[in-house]
Specification:
About 45% of the residues are buried. The protein is built from nine helices and 14 strands. The chain is α/β, with parallel strands linked by helices. It has helices spanning about 1-20, 40-55, 65-75, 90-115, 165-170, 195-205, 230-240, 250-260, 275-280, and strands spanning about 25-30, 60-65, 80-85, 85, 120-125, 130-140, 150-160, 175-180, 180-185, 190, 210-215, 230, 265-270, 290. About 40% of the residues lie in helices and about 25% in strands. The protein has an eight-stranded mixed β-sheet, sandwiched between helices. Strands 3-4 form a two-stranded antiparallel ribbon. The longest helix has 25 residues, at about 90-115.
């Protein structure tokens, strides 16, 4: 019994340097994948976020909800199409996106964090003009065909983040939970990829970390081994060689863009593990891949110095 208590104490002591280092810092965490669907993972994520706030870190949560949107569109017998990973969003689809993301999912996450001792507030990018966007036109290139620009409807790209909204909530000890819906200059709604929203918010806040939860271990090398630490330069090499596949490309590009915009560190982590956020932040090994700006360092383990 004493040994068990000692092990728990050692775990807390391992976390102490990170708690000290990150006190007062802002972490932007994109919540998605299986962690949003599995009840046990939902609960552990909410606990993680509440604990981060209690130890002096300012978490900002941005959530997705693609599978939930798909189910609602199916119920309403509305077709769902994608172009280069972007959901084609007509007026009817946008209504569903706002209802599912800004309503049901957002409030479920807020309620769960609050049940675990946090003080969360749900927002969409339309609240306080938090996220201003313009229409996104997608360029499609196919072998043997001339490139063309495709109109994907009410899909947007972020042009401005009103950080005053988030900072006022942080200062009042609230945890912002943000649905990736933006507003245009004329009040129109835009559907925006949640990874991109998280990255842009992290840039605007000059966040210490951007953390993306996924349904894979992290980024793997050519032999299938998990890469613990990866430089932005190495990301480009792995994408060019085809080692990083299509599903991971938007996430690593989001990480590199955030780093270029001033975010200190970015992480692609395995959201299928309980307490994945805490394990990545407060342990040496972590549960995914840390992406850093241009530091060519392949390390099987991490030290406090390079985190």
């Amino acid at each position: 019994m004493i040994e068990t208590f000692t092990e728990k104490a050692e775990i807390l002591l391992e976390a102490l340097p990170y708690i000290r280092r990150f006190n007062g810092k802002t972490f932007v965490i994109k919540y998605g994948g299986k962690a949003m669907i599995d009840a046990e993972l939902q609960s552990s994520f909410a606990e993680d976020i509440a604990l981060l706030k209690y130890v002096g870190i300012n978490p900002v949560v941005v959530h997705g909800g693609g599978p939930q949107i798909d189910r609602m569109l199916d119920k309403l017998q509305l077709e769902s199409r994608f172009v280069r990973g972007m959901r084609v969003t007509d007026e009817a689809t946008m209504d569903v996106v706002e209802m599912v993301l800004g309503g049901k999912i957002n409030k479920q996450i807020v309620t769960l964090i609050n049940r675990h001792g946090g003080h969360a507030v749900g927002l969409s990018g339309k609240d306080g003009q938090l996220l201003l966007a313009r229409k996104l036109l997608v360029r499609v290139e196919e072998a043997g065909k001339p490139a063309e620009t495709v109109d994907v409807g009410q899909v947007g790209e972020i042009v401005r983040v009103n950080v005053a909204v988030i900072r006022s909530l942080d200062a009042a000890n609230f945890i912002p939970v943000i649905a990736p819906i933006a507003v245009g200059e004329n009040g129109e709604s835009y559907n925006v990829n949640a990874d991109i929203v998280a990255g842009k918010i992290a840039e605007a806040l000059a966040a210490e970390k951007l953390i993306l939860l996924t349904d894979v271990e992290g980024i793997k090398d050519g032999s299938g081994e998990l890469v613990r630490t990866l430089s932005s330069e190495q990301v480009g090499e792995l994408v060019q060689s085809g080692v990083i596949g299509q599903g991971m490309i938007p996430k690593v590009e989001c990480c590199v863009e955030a780093l270029r915009g001033g975010v200190k560190k970015t992480h692609v982590i395995d959201g299928r593990k309980r307490h994945a956020v805490l394990l990545e932040i407060f342990t040496e090994e972590g549960v995914g891949t840390e992406v850093t700006w241009q530091t060519r360092k392949r390390s099987a383990r991490r030290s406090l110095g390079n985190r």
